[in-house]
Design goal:
Elements lengths: L3 H21 L7 H17 L23 E3 L9 E2 L2 H13 L6 E7 L2 E8 L2 E7 L5 E3 L2 H4 L15 E8 L2 H13 L8 H9 L4 H5 L4 E6 L11 H11 L8 E3 L2 H14 L7 E8 L2 H7 L9 E5 L5 E12 L4 E13 L2 E7 L3 H7 L6 E7 L3 E7 L33 E2 L6 H12 L11 H9 L16 H5 L5 H15 L4 H7 L7 H11 L2 H6 L2 H5 L6 H12 L1 H12 L22 E5 L7 H10 L3 E2 L9 E4 L5 H9 L2 E4 H7 L4
Helix pairs in contact: 1-2, 12-13, 16-17
Length: 665
């Protein structure tokens, strides 16, 4: 069990060192994504264990330490950070939280410029002081350096006393030219625009700063009510009229859908901008609402910063574990320090095989890149060799099965190792887990670890034994972590699974290369499991989408007496063996021969039922929107598929249209 205090101490040390290296030495040693990951973990641990919160924790401060070399400036109003969110669900929760307070807000969406924050003070319309955020309360006086930035006005268009806040940044083109010069002079190249801007503004010689061509956008007026302004939109316009440069991409939206659309749009044009952005800031527009919502000690409650999903993130590879699949395939898997990639928290990722690991020289203890193959499957890229400490452990392939101890084998033409033991427990457990999975028999309460326990205790040896678990009700209730209610719920789910249509059972049986789609084709064609069992190789290959290899696998499976015995027991226990779809496809011209994609939340019908109706009317459903898609059906809060359908000019039906076409209220 993790020692929480030790982990908190470790995280504080990591974050404080990172802050020092970034803010003081201008030499970042970890990525922004890694910093965010550690900070979120620390915040969660401190919320769960408030008595362990330390006074020097980074969570009670904003930003880093104050840099030496400049005079100090105390901010009259603290320069707070903005709370980060990383996926659409957190944006929805932000909106819901505000509405639970009784408000119906409009929002201002702004690009999150990747630079450094600055506070500008003017007296009688003249720039008198510029300061960094520092630790939120005290920053550095960088007035002389800021005066070199051409996009910061030295004199405003009105004789006015005012403080505004914004972001100093370096454009992509400026960084490119600067690095070309540094390379010619044999100097170290600057890592990115944000680090380059931060380092430039801290130069003690303002003449050198002037050569860096820094720029600035202004985005915040701390005290708008003092100027008779009632909304953030009005404040932006007011600052623009005074002569400040505001970002032209800002937009006022009416609801959560407007926020999502703005995020999708700006995510797509992100690479074409002349400057770096790392997300979108969402602010309640009404100033009175902002004041009512208030602040935490660290963040305003009326705004959030959505950070674009990292296409590539970095984390530590803690260990390599080996798993055995239901075909006996041995797969090495990376155990990772949790990291967010494209909105998902990744803790494990496949390393595929020995050849992949050796070719990349991946070692236990390495900092590795993580990405999603096809934007879906977590994958491990190359290690950061320059981050090695010398304590990393080179990879060593195992030579025996980690479960049964059998000598593993590999054919010359294949990259994967296999356990040859047909009775290997891991094969059996993987098959059981597959049978109970959502896309197969959908038995809630039979997850991986529970299934492993039930197998190890001897309650389940093959899939038919799942339907005898009710005999062990008393024994199961006595096991740690189970209890009466969970056992009752499990038994109810097992009983419900007996009613599944044939395609669910076929997929769950785990016939080699018979996936969910092929199972549907077979179920629709043969209507019952008995008819499929009697089907010949020729019968199978005559079906569109059933090739010779799949046909051979099906015939071989049903020739195995052990498999037939399991099927017979399933029949005895009342598991349905028939296709429950309609007896024949209704050739509805609205659906027949068309490809559909469902997105968003449907309120009157489940997605599974909608898909079945579409298929029974001669259409088919897929998960991705492509040029071959005919119709996209959208529910509440549709995702990126909705926008892609618009971009491709694909027909879009809302739920009401769909229900009308299928004859439902």
């Amino acid at each position: 069990m993790m020692d929480v205090k030790l982990r908190i101490d470790e995280l504080i040390k990591i974050l404080n060192e990172a802050n020092y290296n970034y803010y003081i030495l201008d030499n970042p040693t970890i990525s922004d994504q890694e910093f965010d990951k550690y900070l979120r973990e620390l915040m969660e641990l401190e919320m769960e264990n408030p008595d362990l919160r330390r006074e020097d924790s980074p969570t009670v401060r904003v930003g880093g330490s104050v840099t030496t070399g400049f005079e100090k400036v105390t901010h009259k109003l603290p320069m707070l950070s903005i709370g980060d969110v990383f996926n659409e669900d957190e944006i929805v929760e932000f909106d819901s939280r505000i509405k639970r307070e009784g408000f119906q807000p409009r929002y201002v969406c702004e690009l999150k410029i990747d630079g450094l924050s600055v506070s500008l003070h003017y007296e009688h319309g003249k720039l008198v002081r510029a300061a960094t955020r520092g630790n939120g309360l005290v920053g550095d006086d960088i007035t002389n350096n800021v005066k070199t930035i051409k996009t910061v006005p030295l004199t405003l268009k009105q004789d006015i006393d005012i403080e505004v806040r914004g972001e100093i940044y370096m454009s992509k083109e400026t960084l490119k030219k600067l690095n070309q010069e540094r390379e010619e002079n044999g100097m170290t190249l600057l890592q990115n625009c944000r680090n380059a801007a931060s380092g430039s503004i801290k130069l003690l010689d303002s003449r050198e700063v002037a050569k860096r061509n820094l720029e600035c956008f202004i985005y915040h007026l701390p005290n708008p009510l003092d100027y008779g302004l009632k909304t953030h939109e009005e404040a932006l316009q007011f600052m623009k009229e005074l002569g400040f440069r505001t970002n032209p991409n800002n937009r006022v939206v009416n609801d959560i859908d407007g926020i999502m659309q703005f995020i999708r749009e700006k995510g797509e044009i992100r690479s074409s901008l002349s400057y770096d952005i790392d997300g979108v800031v969402v602010k309640v527009n009404d100033i009175w609402m902002q004041n009512q919502l208030g602040y935490t000690s660290k963040y305003p409650k009326w705004c959030i910063a959505y950070k674009f999903p990292a296409e590539i993130a970095y984390t530590k590879l803690i260990d390599i574990l080996f798993t055995v699949g239901r075909t006996g395939q041995i797969t090495p898997n990376a155990v990772l320090e949790p990291v967010i990639v494209q909105g998902s928290t990744i803790k494990r990722a496949t390393l595929h095989n020995e050849e992949n690991i050796v070719s990349k020289d991946i070692r236990i203890g390495d900092i590795v890149s993580i990405y999603k193959a096809g934007d879906v499957i977590p994958a491990v890229g190359a290690p950061l060799v320059n981050r090695r400490t010398g304590k990393e452990m080179p990879f060593q392939m195992i030579d025996v099965c980690p479960i049964c101890g059998s000598k593993i084998v590999k054919k010359e033409e294949e990259a994967d190792y296999f356990c040859p033991n047909m009775e290997c427990p891991a094969r059996n457990v993987s098959g059981l887990i597959h049978f109970a999975s959502k896309d197969a028999m959908n038995i809630e309460g039979l997850g991986d670890s529970i299934m492993e326990d039930l197998y190890n205790y001897g309650y389940i040896k093959d899939v038919s034994d799942i339907y005898t678990l009710s005999q062990y009700r008393v024994e199961l209730e006595q096991l740690e972590g189970y209890g009466k209610k969970s056992v009752e719920k499990l038994n109810a789910s097992i009983e419900e699974s007996k009613k599944n249509s044939l395609e669910k059972l076929l997929f769950g049986l785990g016939i080699k290369q018979v996936g969910a789609k092929t199972a549907k084709i077979l179920a629709y064609k043969f209507r019952s499991l008995d008819c499929l069992i009697e089907a010949s190789y020729e019968d199978l290959t005559s079906i569109s989408d059933i090739g010779p290899i799949i046909a051979k696998n099906i015939v071989t499976y049903f020739q195995d007496e052990a498999n037939l015995k399991i099927i017979q027991k399933l029949k005895q226990y009342g598991v349905n063996m028939n296709y429950l779809g309609m007896s024949q496809v209704e050739e509805d011209s609205n659906f027949f021969g068309k490809t559909f994609v469902l997105t968003g939340t449907l309120t009157h019908i489940t997605r599974d039922k909608a898909s079945l109706i579409i298929e029974n009317k001669g259409g088919k459903t897929t998960s991705s929107v492509t040029k071959k898609t005919d119709v996209v059906i959208v529910g509440d809060n549709p995702g990126s598929k909705y926008q892609k359908a618009i971009d491709l000019g694909i027909s879009i039906w809302n739920e009401e249209e769909f229900m009308n076409l299928i004859g439902e209220e």
